[in-house]
Amino acid sequence: ASTGKVDFPQLSRTIGTSGSVELPGGLFLKWGKSTSSASGSVVVPLDFPNAVFNFIMNADIAVGASAVFLTVDSSTTTQPGATVFARNQANTAYIAANYYWFAIGN
Question: Rounded to whole angstroms, how far apart are CA atoms 57 and 31?
């Protein structure tokens, strides 16, 4: 019976809440879950050998919880990481927040 699982043993990968995979041709996919400090910032590791092509994130908040604004300092979206800031719903103060992120680079 087939499990429906396709395995690519030749791909270099680390699988988990945070992880990465290197695709043929040198393209990397990286992901993780991070928490910003009460000062609202955290550096997300984007240690690609050459360049960052795309970086996205979303807040991990409970249903009905106040909205959280996540912003990236665009001048830091390079090696070795992006600085991410979390602010409260009124956008008046930095806060601690959990979020998931995903990045593509080479």
Answer: 9
